[in-house]
């Protein structure tokens, strides 16, 4: 696993210096199968509740004018974010029941089952998220608590939509485990009952999720069409993400 992580760290984007986040990354500069590169428009992150004033200045300098918070109401209430700069905040929670229980009561044995369940059972919420992403002409940030599960699935769909190379899609997901090591260590001590898998981002789980997506829909574009996004919606997202 260490050798795989080493290789993925070489091709995945590194976190930006936004105090105090650990997994704040851009989806820019990833290569596609059409020999193009993604551009800086969509950003992904872990929790923003402890971001410093300097960190918010960095966010503001990125021209981000919308933040989509994927956390549950319980997570938001227990770890509120203070936004000192004029940025629109929209709450669109995913995995609400599981997240509200602190990820303690999951009967599922692997993350791919959770991700596939999200893609199957939370299509209305995902449709709303992607429709919102489609109308944003300025840079947009989406995040959850760790920035790896809910955020990771949204990122995967965006990168698949513009045909980013598979290695980079898998790397973009898998490196979250590496960058979240420090906060995860603290959370493990505070909440020892949380299932271990929620502190990981194994490449095999994203591979299984990707296989399910391909077997059921072929591409993220077909999946988003199934959710009810129009061709214009999908084209807008592609234009936002592609040079």
Characteristic key phrases:
alpha/beta; five-stranded mixed beta sheet; 13 helices
What can you see in these coordinates?
- The radius of gyration is 17 Å and the shape is globular.
- The protein has 243 residues and is α/β, with parallel strands linked by helices.
- 50% of the residues lie in helices and 7% in strands.
- It contains 13 helices and five strands.
- The longest helix is centred in the C-terminal third of the chain and has 14 residues, at 203-216.
- Helix 6 (123-134) packs across helix 13 and helix 7 runs antiparallel to helix 8 (166-174).
- The model has no long low-confidence stretch (mean pLDDT 93).
- The chain has a five-stranded mixed β-sheet, covered by helices on one side.
- The N and C termini lie far apart (33 Å).
- It has helices spanning 2-11, 53-61, 73-78, 96-100, 111-121, 123-134, 150-161, 166-174, 176-179, 181-190, 203-216, 220-227, 231-241, and strands spanning 25-26, 42-45, 66-69, 88-91, 140-143.
Mean pLDDT: 93
- In which range does the helix fraction lie? 40-55%
Determine the oligomeric state from the structure.
single chain
Note the gap between the termini. Answer: 33 Å
Count of alpha and pi helical runs: 13
| Spans of at least 5 consecutive residues with low confidence | none
Output the strand order for the largest sheet.
1-2-5-3-4
Gyration radius, rounded: 17 Å
Strand content: 5-15%
The major beta sheet can be summarized as: 5 strands, mixed
Instruction: List SSEs in N-to-C order.
Output: HEEHEHEHHHEHHHHHHH
Instruction: Report the count of strand segments.
Output: 5
Structural class: alpha/beta
- The shape, in one word, is globular
